[in-house]
Amino acid sequence: MFYGAEVWDPWLIAAQIVCLQCLYYLTLGFFLCFLVGTRVSRLTLVYFFDFATITTSTVTGRCVIASLLPSSFAGAGYMLYLIERSKKCLDFSATLFIIHLFICIIYGGWPSSITWWVVNGTGFAVMAWLGKYLCSERELREIPISRYRSNV
């Protein structure tokens, strides 16, 4: 892909946001199934969106934290393929976590737990920094040139 003059495409941006959000929640659900699903009788949306479940005082709460952080690492990998530009990683990471905050507010109220803010802030930082690093490494790769050039 060539990165010359960028064209502002709102449909592409919206599709990237939706895809990144869906992949993040699918990954979070995968980790929650294995880490929290084995500890509780029924895995519900409470573990996705209620701030009260993110706690260090219970083993289940620590398992929820252990599910959120690898999901951020995976989100950085998703940005490598969906976003492709290092300068856009901070924007897309912030968008993902702001949407997550709004969903959490709608589901369980304003997150009053400091643990929720620390865990999600760390997840945001990991996703933004690692996504930026991975995308910049891809952008800085040499362009392969064929051994055999045509005689022009």
TrEMBL record:
GO cellular component: cytosol; Golgi membrane; trans-Golgi network
Keywords: Golgi apparatus, Membrane, Protein transport, Transmembrane, Transmembrane helix, Transport
GO BP terms: Golgi to endosome transport; Golgi to plasma membrane protein transport; protein localization to Golgi apparatus
Record's keyword annotation contains Membrane: yes
Domain of life per record: Eukaryota
Membrane topology listed for this record: Multi-pass membrane protein
Transmembrane segments: 12-36, 65-83, 90-110
Broad class of where this protein is predominantly found: Golgi
Compartments where found: Golgi apparatus membrane
Record keyword Phosphoprotein present: no
Stated family: Belongs to the SYS1 family.
Record protein name field: Protein SYS1 homolog
UniProt lineage: Eukaryota, Viridiplantae, Streptophyta, Embryophyta, Tracheophyta
